[in-house]
Write a structure and sequence with these properties.
single chain; elongated; Aminopeptidase; 2 domains; Alpha-Beta Plaits; 11 helices; 441 residues
């Protein structure tokens, strides 16, 4: 295909899309192989380094400049968007592949993905080893295969497909593989601290080829409940900390319901299509000392959602006021104490303008490849997109493959959707960044 004089128009030239689709198809097996290799590295929290070694090697092989750096909590602590760490960051790195064009004539881009994965849960409930990926009926199974190693493999495959065609972006592109997305987001925040900015950011999260237009805020908190111990021969002499903990969690439910009420002043218009966008989740409980003793202490770990525009400090105050009122007014909690602390996500929500160019260009690329129009969705979770949109002057969204049972048993990704997402991302890069021909040195 002859080079076009205008790097921004090449993607619309005759024959470009069929050639791109073929280049993506030619690289699909390599993409699947890379995805399987990534899944075989069990990059749980604190164990991401071997997977990052693999990513760094892939970036080097693509001719990218590799920037590998650790998370400096002291440097991040004063930045907006910081979340208290849940584990020591020692020896854990982000990896960024930096591409620079010969001539910067297009719009710059960040392609971001997180390498960390959540725990597997009971391995015996999986149909196969969660870190030994298998393919059945067009799907690959394994922990992290959808959330979100398939997205990382897809953005690498998209760049590779353009190179096979003899082209490269006409603007800087930063390929980010970050840690700690699943608990704080401090990996992406560290990229901002390092100076990474662009005209847009796309994160290929496994949201079924939809375009993310908004996301809720998310906060992690821990409630330590202290009761009064007693022998079970007279349970009335004590206050059961475990039962009291459940009671306190129950008292938070009306707050959840209030924030979901359509008359709530905090409710964001982006979530008009959701009946229940705000979720309070009791995710972990530990308590008790002895089967024949009334338990003294119980610890609850909760995840609560809140609307874009709600100040995290105000959210914390509302939670603490609700608990304090419960302790004052509920006779079942007489004599019970509760202490609230915060670790992990303290993540604000955000919404993109409906006319954001990154949404329009992704929508056009999706339509060109698939013939359909992607749904625009306000997500009831958080992603690292918030850092770019809120603090980095970089409009950000998510567009990625179809996955099922993420964070669950037998997580899987549809491989045909990975190939389609690869083609959409490659076309988006061509449309957003423009292209220049590769000149052999």
């Amino acid at each position: 295909m002859a080079p076009a004089s205008d790097p921004m128009s090449l993607a619309g030239s005759p024959g470009f899309l069929p050639a791109l689709t073929q280049a993506v198809a030619d690289g699909h097996e390599a993409c699947i192989t890379l995805l399987a290799d990534l899944v075989r590295h069990p990059s749980l929290l604190g164990q991401e380094q071997s997977a990052q070694d693999l990513i760094a090697g892939v970036f080097t092989g693509l001719g990218l400049t590799v920037d590998r750096f650790s998370i400096d909590l002291d440097a991040l602590r004063s930045m907006p968007g910081f979340s208290p760490a849940v584990t020591a960051p020692d020896g854990r790195d982000n990896v960024v592949g930096i591409y620079q064009p010969r001539v910067h004539s297009g719009r710059s881009l960040i392609l971001n993905g997180h390498i960390d994965v959540v725990p597997t849960g009971p391995a015996d409930l999986w149909s196969a080893d969660p870190f030994d990926p298998v393919i059945r009926d067009g799907r690959m199974y394994g922990r992290g295969v959808g959330d979100m190693k398939a997205g990382i493999a897809a953005y690498i495959a998209a760049f590779s497909a353009l190179r096979r065609m003899g082209y490269q972006p006409a603007a800087p592109v930063f390929f980010q593989s970050v840690v700690e997305e699943e608990c704080t987001g401090n990996g992406a925040l560290a990229c901002l601290h390092r100076g990474y900015r662009a005209d847009a950011a796309v994160i290929p999260e496994p949201f079924g080829q939809t375009l993310m237009t908004a996301q809720v805020g998310v906060m992690w908190l821990q409630i330590v409940v202290t009761g009064t111990p007693a022998h079970v021969l007279d349970t009335g002499a004590g206050r059961n900390a475990i039962e009291s903990a459940y009671a306190i969690a129950g008292h938070l439910k009306p707050l959840e319901q209030a924030w979901n009420d359509r008359a709530c002043p905090h409710r964001h218009a982006a979530f008009d299509g959701h009946n229940h966008p705000i979720h309070f989740n009791l995710g972990k409980i530990e308590g008790g000392e002895w089967a024949s003793s009334v338990p003294t202490r119980c610890t609850l770990d909760m995840r609560i959602g809140f609307h874009p525009g709600q100040d995290p400090a105000a959210v914390r105050a509302a939670v603490e006021d609700t608990i304090a009122q419960a302790l004052r007014t509920d006779p079942a909690l007489n004599g019970v104490k509760a202490e609230v602390s915060y670790g992990g996500f303290q993540a604000e929500g955000f919404a993109l303008p409906e006319d954001a160019e990154v949404l329009a260009e992704l929508e056009a690329s999706h339509h060109a490849v698939t013939g359909g129009i992607p749904r625009r969705v306000a997500m009831t979770c958080t992603t690292d997109a918030r850092f770019f949109a809120l603090y980095g002057d970089t409009p950000a969204t998510c567009y990625g493959p179809h996955a099922s049972r993420i964070h669950g048993i037998d997580e899987s990704v549809d491989l045909a959707s990975v190939q389609e997402v690869t083609a959409v991302l490659a076309l988006f890069i061509a449309r957003w960044c423009g292209l220049e021909p590769i000149v052999e040195q």
